[in-house]
Amino acid sequence: MKHMNSEVKEERTSNKNRIDLFLVPIVLIAAFLNLFKIWTDEYANAYYTAAVKSMLQSFHNFFYASFDPGGYVTIDKPPVVFWIQTISAKIFGFHGWSVILPQALAGIGSVLLLYVLVKRTFGVWAGRFAALAMALTPIVPAVSRTNNIDSMLVFTLLVATWMLFRAVRTAKFGWVLAAFAMIGVAFNMKMLQAYMVLPAFYVFYVVATKITWKKKIAFLTTATALMLAVSVSWAVVVDSTSADKRPYMGSSQTNSVLELAFGYNGINRLTGNTSVTGSSHKQPAQTEQQTASSETKQSSNSSADSSQSSNQRKSSSSQKMQAPGGGNQNGMFNTGNPGPFRLFQKGLSDQISWLLPFVIFSIVGLFAGVKFKGPYTTKQKESLFWLAWLLPVAVFFSIAGFFHQYYLIMLAPPIAAFAGAGAVALWSMYKQHNGWKSWLLPGGILTTAALQVYIMSPYVSSIGAAPIAGVGALGVILALVLAVRKQRKNSLTNYLGAAAMVVLLAMPAYWAMTPIIYGGNSMLPSAGPDSSSGMGGPPSTATNSKQSGFNGMQPPGSSSGNSSSNNQMQPPSGSSNGGQMQMPDGSSNNSQMPNSFSSKSSSSKRKSGGMNAEVNQKLLNYLTKNNTGEKYLFATTDSTSAAPYIIKTGKPVMAMGGFSGSDPILTVSKLKAMIKKGEVKYFYLSGMGKGGQSDVITWIKENSKEIPSSKWQSTSSSAQQGPSGNGTLYEITLK
Hints:
Elements: H1 8-14, H2 23-35, H3 46-55, H4 59-64, H5 80-92, H6 96-122, H7 124-136, H8 139-144, H9 150-170, H10 173-190, H11 198-208, H12 213-239, H13 257-271, H14 284-295, H15 310-320, H16 349-352, H17 356-367, H18 378-399, H19 412-431, H20 440-456, H21 460-463, H22 465-484, H23 491-517, H24 617-625, E1 635-636, H25 639-649, E2 654-655, H26 668-676, E3 682-685, H27 694-702, E4 705-706, E5 728-731
Parallel strand pairs: 1-2, 1-3
Antiparallel strand pairs: 3-5, 4-5
């Protein structure tokens, strides 16, 4: 920190044409957090990994992002990220790590991009701090270590930001078009989530460019039109293609990409709407919640502590499985209850909010003395950009009805940017004894340390009291000492400032390493001592913080080496069906998947792709042996059952109701036609995901022959020892 401000210009010039040696360890830290041990994740998020397996088999599957090799249904997101994953798998071979690699590299790239963006205006030290804060934001590596979309989305939006900043500096309209076109590309990664940054882009361009209002409006209108054209380009092609010549658009209710974008992946995320007027099935937003919640009660490593009591698990499940607004402070998937302080609630704060108080103090310092009518400095303009990114996104997550913890990565860039720029700005104000502004640095340190103590306090049984007390004590001491030494200018003060930054980043750094230390969850990634559960939030009353699954619970069909009831998943005690796990169609889960979680040594490979990330080999052998030329190996209700078989065999498996089993894809007449054509004859039915296909399932049961379980069930597999019984295999042949 010494001579930081006086050396900013000198260092900026001297480092212009050479590598910043301080950046090297930051990049190495990011590389370690994002890449280390990704090769142990064999299936990653099996839903998406199965799609990559399918997309490798034909251009038709590749273009439409088909979930299954038969081209029956697509995944529930646009294809761009999965095109990249498929290309990676084509180059390096099909592995869990090869589909994760693009996201891991994107996480590292985001650190570098943020350094470049912040350094140019706020100085090299600001760039370094911003890059380090980005690398150590816990949710960033947690997401980047999976094949979920969000890490690549954030990287793409930062590329668009770089283009926008360049457009303002060079006054070239072409860069404006490129920036907004890149947002259109991001839309084809995760749809409306990409548009969350638009307020920042519009506000910054209007404020920062020195052109007439007429030109500003014309340029922004043209750029927006281009963005919209790029955004809907794939959707228009798909929706204009005859339905019988392409897969069904997964998780939509009308087989439409645009409906998927603005419904399931759009407005429903904000409203949390879980009903469809006049529909007999649940809205996908709800079915995703229900199915994902059952899928993620899994073991990311099979070392679960089987000694926990069933009552403890029931209590934990009951606390965490409430719907948004249901009166539980943890909310659905530990996303808390909507409100102005939601980002400080348990389950969200430890993913993203470690530096938020410091960021707030930084914003005050950076905008101190700014007049509404300007003129604005470059620093103030870019600060306004990051603020216009931060606030709307924070507001969305504060009021949204349904999202997952890992979506919070959208907040990481502005928080990291303000942490870096604010560290330099507050230090300068402190050193210059700039009136009340000189108190912002010690105030930011004190309040940030206090928040971090609050964040860690529920984890005292997992991490111990020492680090919590250490952060609190050091934060208070350093803040007070800096306050006392405000009038002194010597090297000790500089070291105290640097020490304060280290203290504030220490626990975020530890949290960022938890997916490596404790194991991660590729279905619903999160950081923390219970990161393998994928549910974030503080641990339950369990005594073993390293336990796997949903606070130690094993899902139906999981294999932990202990088939006792203490290892079985318990439903929420408050379920409306009297204590049974609620399924997407409103029924209870009375049957069991035909899969074992892991039959291999978990010490070398993790099966974190969902509840059923290992096939039942006896079932597979039976289906393969008795296949008489049918297109589909078998059909099942939803993607959870189908994904591991697609990954292992590369053969078509039909998820009749799409991801959660609620998609209205099949009718009885369509199914009869498929059976008569010899496309499918075996059906595995469990209690999962009936949704809007109850008529189809009823017809299957009434017109099929049940296959004796002795022919396809493995008696030694704990997959057949779930708490609710087993699924059933049927055969139908029509003449």
